[in-house]
Amino acid sequence: MFNILQTSTSRRSVLGLMGAGAALGLAGCVGVGGDASSGKDDAGGVRKGFKQAPVKVPEAYKGRTNVIFWAPFTGINFQVLTTLLKKFNDSQKDIYAGAESVGSYADLAQKFTAALQAKQVPDIVCFPEHRWIQYWQADALAPLDSYFDDEWNNKVYMQQFVPEGQAQGKTYQVPFARSTPLFYYNKTRFKEAGLPEKGPDTWPEYAKMAPDLAKLKSAGKALKIFPFKNDDEWYGQAHIWAWGGRFSEGTNVLVDKGPMLEWLTWKNTFIHKQNYGYVAKSPVTDFTTGISAATHASTATLAQILHDSKFEVGSHFMLGNDSAGPKVPIGGSGLAVVKAESKDRQDAAAKVLKFMAEPENCAQWHLGTGYLPIVLKAAELPEVTANYKKIPNYKVALDQVKNSRQSDTITWFDAPVDDINRAMGLVYGDGKDPKTVVTDLQKQLDEKMAKYKDTISKVMAKGN
């Protein structure tokens, strides 16, 4: 049973570190000798001069090869992680794996960059989506393919999440704390309004439901229909796909091709002309406190939403435009091994990653945190399937995985994401002309793509 809180961090909180030139400049600023993106043979070995960051080893585990995991988790999530690592430590006598909570993804990025500069690094890190690319270019991450065997390899994971950890045909990050966005709705209020209990499939369908919901009261005021936020790009990725478009494909920016204008025009009407939407400081809080009838949030937030809500919560695939079940972007983070002076520690760190991919351990992480059961066999275990029967909302999150895919290439970097967020905010919050906003965004993203296209091409290359 999911009976604990999910501590969530914005997937777009790692600001600035992937700004213009950051990925290309990191290697120089930390004095890295190799370059993983160059395809040179030395990119897969150890790095002389880089030592392990300080690690405290309990007396019971001294005399082993020590591995330190800098984890971007706090609260319950970190507790679940440390429980799993203790299980690993007690399962064998050669390796000690310890974890240090470094806060958020943004905190990890800042601390890891400083560690590279000081040449004192952890052995395992956990970055969101493509944020590992800058460190791959700095030759800071070890390729993992040589560690794969019949029991642990990319085939054990949900396949939609595997390519995001690969560059030039090699694997540098394996899936771990993964998620997708979901549409959440107040099933109790839907019933009161006489609306279908299953919720809407599309945005136009939800707009037709809005007048009935608006007749209901919340704290003496009309129930609000839908809260948006000024950093909704992740959800915007699902929206532009639902309208048949893309932010980019390969190294080509596509926001001015029509679908984005259609989507923003529709949302402009929904928010400012029909008064069904509004910009909120915390959409999830507005939803769980009953102010709004629905919201969208990560699947990893489901446990928190269920805990905080005093009404029956419904969850649904992200809404489409003219059809149900659009493609959705994958979110969350994966595990990577850091290169340093010790091949033994790299080997030991890889064994920790393999341990985390065992179905029982993946299920424990999934049931304890709310992240997806990223290992295929984990979703088939009795304790997981029993939980789906008890709390069907979690099955909705799993079922939507089939619609998930990598975000468009231009969103791999924070600076373009900032541009997209700003453009969406101009329409969502200020009611600006969508056509002007889209035209300006195309120019901004074209400039960013000129800076990032070489990196994108290197990552997408199949390698040797």
UniProtKB/TrEMBL annotation:
Which InterPro entries does this entry report, sorted A to Z?
Answer: Bact_solute-bd_prot1, SBP, TAT_signal
Q: Which CDD domains match?
A: PBP2_UgpB
Its recorded name reads Extracellular solute-binding protein family 1
Q: Which organism is it from?
A: Acidipropionibacterium acidipropionici (strain ATCC 4875 / DSM 20272 / JCM 6432 / NBRC 12425 / NCIMB 8070 / 4) (Propionibacterium acidipropionici)
